Every structure is written in C-alpha cells, then in structure tokens.
Automatic annotation (TrEMBL):
It comes from Myriangium duriaei CBS 260.36. Pfam families: LOR. InterPro entries: LOR, LOR_sf. The lineage of its organism: Eukaryota, Fungi, Dikarya, Ascomycota, Pezizomycotina. Residues 29-41 have a biased composition (Basic and acidic residues). This is Uncharacterized protein. Residues 1-55 are annotated as: Disordered.
Length: 262
C-alpha cells in the first residue's frame, strides 16, 4: 500500500491541549517500533490519569496484545479503518451479521469477521482466511460483556455501561504469562446522545475515535434499520486487531440500542 500523509492524533501532556498535526509516514522498524516509542498506553502522571482508571495503564497493559499478534498489526502506516457490518441472511451458514474491515471503502479487507449463534460467537480472520482471534458475547452480563481470546487464552474483557442515554465501554487486558490484569486499560465514551460517536482513551490519551457514517441526524437515528458503517481514526502505534475488536463491540452496542438484529 502506498504511503501517504495522514492526520494523526497526537496528545500533548495535558489532555485539554491535544492537537492534530500532519506527519509523514515512514516504514516500520522492528528495532524502533512506533508502538513502543509513541505508545498511548505509556504510564501517565498521577495528575493526568482519568478517574475511571483503577489500575495504572502502563505499556505493560498491552504487552499481551503485542505478544499475541506481533508488531505487524501496529497501526503504522494505517491510520483509518472502515468497518462495515453486513446484513443478516438465512442463506449464509453464519447466523448473524459479519463485518468487513478495511482501510477504505474500496480497498480489500484487512480483516473479516464471521458471526455465529446470533452474534454470540465471532471469529476475526486475516485476508487469507486464517483465524486471528475469537470474540465471545455474554448477553446477560455487563461485566465481561465481550471477551477476546487467542489460542484459548483470554486477552481482553470488555464491560458495557449505559450512563443515561450514553453507551460507555471499558476494556480490561489480561496477561496470561504474569497473571496480571489491567482494569480499564481502555475507556470508550460516547460523545453524542445517539451512540454514533466515540472517543477511546488509554489513560488521558485519546488514541482512537469511532464515528457511524450512515446514521440519520438527531432523533431519526433511533429508527435506523440498516447495518452501521464506521469510520475509525487511529493514532500511530495502536494495535489494529484490538482496534477492530473494539469497533465490533461498539457496533454491537449500537445495534442493540437501536433495536435491530446483530
């Protein structure tokens, strides 16, 4: 894929002073991984920590993600994901809507997601069809409402909370090697009443934004009957697999709140 100039979200030391700048994209170096150098999961100072962070969000919170999927899935040079949920069909062997995840509407898939059991079980696949990870949906639980596993090991559990009319998510990462878990390593907060826009932070740092691109304005969005299409903006160094899974979970929550089948 041809490299280009992209707008990257680069937070300042104070979350109120975030700014956006344009930076040229250079090839990824294993010795100088952008995930390690510019990680949004680096430990913030105590004065900058978001109040919902219950365990310090250090780079270690994402070590299990990096170890499982490798640095090839860092979001460099990719900065945008196009996440499209499919229509439900009885013809398919999958009883639920899948997803196509790409870098633009016209580009080939970066990932595909197959759904089974009405969305209770999903598998994220590479373009070659190889399974990358699994997503389990626990319908009756707000805690661990979604669970991301790889080779049978739990990596991320995602909680859901409805605050008034807003949808909020938080992700806990699990390190199977050390046995340690990092609560609220990622926090996703809806920025509009209708659940169509989200900011995702690691500590005070916004590393991902998600926006529904095909919803009606205002109250009309409550009557949406077509699957949502999402535009995901990523800061440099964010993990693409984690970003894809978070977008799928957000799409799930959006679909449930708008009352159409997943």
């Amino acid at each position: 894929m041809q490299a280009s100039l992209s707008q990257l979200i680069v937070p300042g030391p104070d979350p109120r002073n975030r700014h956006i700048h344009t930076s040229p994209i250079s090839p990824v170096s294993r010795e100088h991984s952008p995930f390690r150098e510019r990680s949004p999961f680096r430990d913030p100072s105590p004065s900058l920590r978001h109040p919902s962070i219950t365990t310090t969000a250090t780079t270690g919170a994402m070590d299990s993600i990096t170890h499982a999927f490798g640095e090839d899935y860092d979001s460099h040079p990719f900065t945008t994901l196009h996440v499209e949920q499919s229509y439900f069909t009885w013809v398919s062997r999958n009883t639920g809507r899948g997803f196509k995840i790409s870098t633009s509407p016209s580009s080939p898939p970066l990932f595909t997601v197959q759904s089974q059991n009405w969305g209770k079980h999903r598998t994220l696949h590479s373009p070659s069809g190889a399974p990358i990870c699994e997503i389990k949906r626990n319908w009756l639980s707000k805690h661990s409402a979604w669970e991301l596993s790889h080779n049978g090991e739990l990596l991320v559990s995602i909680n859901i909370e409805w605050l008034r009319t807003h949808i909020n998510l938080s992700a806990t990462t699990h390190d199977s090697v050390t046995g340690q878990k990092y609560d609220s390593a990622v926090v996703a907060e809806a920025t509009d009443v209708w659940g169509g826009k989200f900011n995702l932070r690691a500590g005070p740092r916004t590393f991902m934004t998600v926006k529904c691109g095909n919803m009606s304005e205002g109250w009309k969005s409550a009557f949406k009957v077509s699957p949502p299409i999402w535009e995901v903006q990523l800061a440099e160094g964010a993990n693409l697999v984690l970003a894809a899974v978070l977008a799928v979970c957000i799409s799930d929550a959006y679909s449930e709140s708008h009352g159409f089948m997943l």
